[in-house]
Amino acid sequence: MSNLQRKVLGGAGGGVGGGMAPPPPRLSAPGVLPPQAPPAPGRRRPGSFRRRSYSPVSWKKYWDSKEQLKSDDGVFTVYSKGSGDTLVLLLHGGGYSGLTWSLVAEELYRMAECRIAAIDLRGHGESVGGSEDMSLDALSKDVRCVADQLIQSMGLKSLVLVGHSLGGAVAVSVAKEGGIAGLVVIDVVEGTALESLNHMQGFLRSRPQQFRSVSHAIEWCVRSGQARNIESAKVSMPGQIKDAEGRLVSSNLDDLAAQPKDQIIESATRLTPEPPPDSIKEEDEESSNNGSGEKARETSSADSNDAPAGNGPYTWAIDLSTTEPYWSGWFADLTANFLSAPSAKLLMLAGVDRLDKDMMVGQMQGKFQMLVLPQVGHAIQEDSPDKVAEAIANFVVRNRFAPSKDSNIHVPKIPLRP
């Protein structure tokens, strides 16, 4: 062997004595995976699943107080939060309650200095009395009465009405009479609203009429798409259902048994989690399992109607089908009244296709501000509460109804048109 070969072999050894380097140690026997380190604290093993929690949440998490205000026709429940010289009164849509605004109120409280209140309209939530008359005039009278009481008791200076769907129609009806500083209407336009009434009874029949548990109702709310935000559904849905004794769930949450916590399935192999007895399969899950869109829709419909019904003790707090005689009256002349209302106006929509001709003309003439939020359903305030709160905060601050708490929301240097 030459000197050159000896040097090369000696350098490859890498050891002090110039010998050959030992082969790297084998971590495990052939065909056997090396041992895995234990998972870090707070992390789940790969292949494990955490079941989403659909436990209800009390109104106390989002609101400072709840009070009952009396009128000639009944007693109305009002949730409130914040302080300031301006009252922002939030009006919910048909079938909902004031709790639908819970997450919006929390966000708005951080952005603008104003008093925030949400009312349970007659026949809804914890409000008592007056349900035999669900006309627009009666609903508007209630709101005006409650607003006057709140303004007088708190020494407030101005009122901004914010209404979703039916609540938007009520807000417009009140605003057209004057005395309202600002008007915000969410996802309701006369033309599309009247057209949708033809399908309303079918929609109401397609909903489950009973629920086996409160968590099951919340799960249905999220999976059916009624609300796409689970946190909002947890506080809103208890205000929409009642127990076998007729008590609204949100009014006695503290008395309900503790709901099951999140469950974790851990395994060395990926498992398909077994659905709970109350579970409702989503449409896309059915599509992937059955391979047929039509069959998936049929199965989904059966799941959402037959499975939840059973003999569940929880039902809807209000039977909206009984209010059908009032439906057309709720939205009649809505466009004309909105455009003529003597106040600053903002219209929030889930899609521009909801605009009718007169509203499109009014928008181009600058009679109101308009904001279209993407990737939301009809319940915009629940699907995207942060965006809705930001829009309301910008509206009240830019119109100088309330000072800003957020540096990103400020009064424009150029005065706005009245």
Cα(first) to Cα(last) distance is 101 Å
How many beta-strand elements?
13
Q: Structural class of the secondary elements?
A: alpha/beta
Note the beta-strand portion.
5-15%
Which spans have pLDDT < 50 for at least 5 consecutive residues? 12-21, 25-36, 257-310, 414-418
Shape: globular
Order of helices and strands: HEEEEHEHEHEHHEHHEEHHEHHEHEHH
Structure description:
There is one protein chain. This protein is 35% helix and 14% strand. The protein starts with a helix and ends in a 20-residue tail after the last helix. The strands form 3 sheets. The protein has an 8-stranded mixed sheet with strand order 2-3-5-4-6-7-12-13, sandwiched between helices. The protein has a 3-stranded antiparallel sheet with strand order 8-11-9. It has a two-stranded antiparallel sheet with strand order 1-10. It is α/β, with parallel strands linked by helices and 418 residues long. The longest helix has 19 residues, at 136-154. The radius of gyration is 29 Å and the shape is globular. α4 (166-175) links the parallel β6 and β7. The protein has helices spanning 3-13, 102-111, 136-154, 166-175, 190-196, 200-206, 214-223, 230-236, 283-290, 293-309, 324-331, 334-340, 357-364, 380-383, 385-398; strands at residues 49-50, 65-70, 75-81, 86-91, 115-119, 158-164, 182-186, 210-211, 241-242, 264-265, 314-316, 344-349, 369-372. It has 15 helices and 13 strands.
